[in-house]
Amino acid sequence: MWLEFLSASIHLVLQGLGFLNYKRLADSLPSCRVFPGDKSWPTEDVWNALNASVDHRLIKTVPVGSPCHDPHYDEKACDQVQQNWHQTDMHISHPSSIMDAVFLNKSCDPFTSRDSPCYVGSYVQYAVNVSDPMHIMKTIEFANKHNIRFIVKNTGHDYMGRSTGAGAISVWMHHLKEVEWFHDYSSPGYTGPALKVQAGVQGAEVNAEATKHGHLVVAGECPSVGFAGGYIQGGGHSTLSSVLGMAADHTLAFEVITTTGEFVTASPLVNQDLYWALSGGGGGTYGIVWSVTVKAHPDMPVTKARLFFSSEGLSCDSYWEAITAYQQTIPSILDTGSFLDSTYDAKKFRVDPLIGPNVSASTILSVLTPWLSTLNSLGINYTFTLTEHANYVDAVAGYDNFDIMGYQLGGRLLPRTLFQTSEGFSEFMRTIRDIVEGGAYVWDIGLRPSWEAGGYPNNAVHPGWREAERMYNPVLFFNDDDTLESIWDDQRRISVLFDEPLRKLSVGGGAYANEADPFAPDWKVAFYGEHYHRLLSIKDKWDPDHLLYGTIAVGGDRWEVVEDGRLCRAV
Questions:
Q1: The predicted structure's pLDDT at residue 8
Q2: What is the pLDDT of residue 509?
Q3: Boundaries of each FAD-binding PCMH-type domain copy (predicted)?
Q4: SS3 content of the chain, % helix, strand, coil (to 5)
């Protein structure tokens, strides 16, 4: 009797964790997704039939770098690709290109020799330019029937490799641009202004629409990022996070196409589990988001500060004394509800910007004065600007003045408690100095998206965000013509030499599932924390055939990419 009881209990636990559901799935599916060249890969007639079923919106993809290779070499077109490789617009407007070269595996690379082969490789094979939910449903049906890898792509701005995949078909969501403003949206727990946006709407477009109505929405710092996709589904930090929390804290409803072909709403009233998971539980995992509706808030004046200096003419110790003084000032800056974006390496330092929502310039100057006094006493020649702006959009204008491509990230969330003792602060300073002097450029974000700031939401955002003081990201750059071997060696350096010490500083703190080491060995805890098993059971319910895959997405360890690039069930 006892053994029967134990067996039944284990069965229930495994079922709750999704293991039994997955075992039944694994027993019934082929071991690998079909790949180009396989006998079972669809014929041209079959692809033509799909094209007709999606209103002739199927695109057989051509890699963006193809003009740089024979037999289609075009010097002028190739120069255009190379010159725009580090800019967002070219990749956003292309049906298969993405903004992280690491995951392209040198497929049809515009910087390899003209006579090297141009192959689709890690790009998707086909893309459906979606304009109607039926286009997604037909593509899902096709992918399931033919056992083809399925990808969701919007802008391609994804440092975790989820927007592309060898041998895949994708739904390209970028042209879904409808927005709808609600003066008086009403739902359980919220009545007030709201904004509904389709999946292709980007951050700058969200900001522009909200501003037209005298409001703002919690959106990302980078204006080109797709709002409703991996950004908000991954939690979504913002220049407003210290006063309004994470973007996912403001979701009111999602419209979703499920992998079983249904169009559903997920909200606090209906399909609550899906709503909870989509609000911070990771992008491209549970369903294909058609739209999201979010709270809007009254616009507010914003103070912005910027400061730059270099190590030129300084001793190493003086340079680090200046950075230490900055780090000691950060808690007081965050106490005002401000946000900090700082980057530095061994040669140069910048804060660009400090954003103070509803904070006066005099308050910001008062808080910064001790640090500025230190810089003056050290004889540091710095550039400092302090401006006041009538609204939020004016303050964050120009935030997209940075390149994409050519770098790799690590990163962890560092808890507030680390900075509340002299021992913790000293250990932090020793660690970051080792990281910077070890060759890293760091992206050091200061913010406090606490439970209180977010309005005590019930969602899947990693709990580590609620105690966070920093998102600290080591960065290594690579050149366009670097070899894959050297690029992957650098990624290993990030994982071992930089991220491992940060993990020791942030036990339980986690990492941001959109901006961190995509090969973090503790990714389940790092990106999802205590929510992981609940999220896995929700995935098993809403994506029963596990069509949606990402290496660090919930359930991602059930699959693996093998040597030729195809996706296979993990052993």
A1: 34
A2: 81
A3: 119-299
A4: 40, 20, 40
Closest residue by Cα to residue 442 from 501, 388, 482: 501
Cβ(476)–Cβ(407) under 8 Å? Answer: yes
CA distance 300 to 254: 27
Strands of the sheet containing 149-153, edge to edge, are: 58-60, 126-129, 168-172, 149-153
d(CA 107, CA 161): 14
Q: For the segment 61-83, what is each residue's pLDDT rounded down to a tens digit?
A: 999 999 999 999 999 999 999 99
Write phi, then psi, for 523 (nearest 5 degrees). Answer: -60, -35
Which residues are CB-contacts of 228 (< 8 A; sequence separation ≥ 6)? 197, 198, 199, 201, 289, 291, 292
pLDDT digit string (tens) for 197-255? Answer: 999 999 999 999 999 999 999 999 999 999 999 999 999 999 999 999 999 999 999 99
Q: Which residue has the tokens 């079923």?
A: 53
Low-confidence ranges of the chain (pLDDT < 70): 1-29, 400-402
Cis, peptide link before residue 353, omega less than 30° from 0: yes
What pLDDT, on a 0 to 100 scale, did the predictor assign at position 249? Answer: 98
- Which run of H or E residues covers position 341? strand 339-344
**Torsion region of 70: left, alpha or beta (phi above 0 gives left; psi -120 to 50 gives alpha):** beta
List, as one string, the DSSP characters of 395-439: HHTTTT-S--SSEEE--EEEEGGGGSSHHHHHHHHHHHHHHHHTT
Please check whether residue 118 is in contact with residue 108, taking contact to mean a CB–CB distance below 8 angstroms.
Answer: yes
pLDDT, residue 507, reads 82
The beta-strand segments (E) located in 23-70 are 58-60
- Name the residue type at position 71: P
Q: For 85-113, b where at least 16 C-beta lie within 10 A, e where not — what string?
A: bbebebbbebbbbbbbbbbbbbbbbbbbe
| DSSP string for 160-222 | TSTT--TTEEEEE-TT---EEEEEEEEETTEEEEEEEEETT-BHHHHHHHHHHTTEE----SS
Rounded to 5 degrees, φ, ψ at 298 are: -55, 140
Where does residue 192 fall: left (phi above 0), alpha (psi -120 to 50 degrees), or beta otherwise?
Answer: left
Beta strands in 346-406 (DSSP E): 348-357, 383-389
Q: What pLDDT is recorded for position 496?
A: 94
What residues form DSSP beta bridges with 194?
182, 295
531: tokens are 């929510």
CB atoms within 10 A of CB 452: 11
pLDDT single digits (tens) 461-474: 999 999 999 999 99
Beta strands 339-344 and 441-446, pairing class: antiparallel
